[in-house]
Amino acid sequence: MKATTKKDVSLAAQSNYGRRRQSEIYVGGVSGQSAGVPLDLVELESRAREVMSREAYAYVAGGAGVESTILENREGFERWRIVPRMLNDVSSRDTSIELFGQRLPAPFLLAPIGVLEMAHEQADLAVARACAAEGVPMIFSNQASVSMEECAAQMDTSPRWFQLYWSASNDLVESFVARAEASGCQAIVVTLDTTMLGWRVRDLDLAYLPFLRGKGIAQYTSDPVFRMLLKAQGGDELSSERKINLNTLKVLFELAEHYPDGFLKNLTSGEPLSAVRKFIGIYSRPSLTWDDLAFLRERTKLPILLKGILHPDDGRKAVDAGMDGIVVSNHGGRQVDGAIASIDALPTVVEAADGNIPVLFDSGIRTGADAFKALALGARAVCLGRPYVYGLAVGGQKGVENVIQNFKADFDLTMGLAGCRSVAEITRGALVRRSA
Question: What is the value of pTM for the model shown?
Answer without folding.
Answer: 0.91
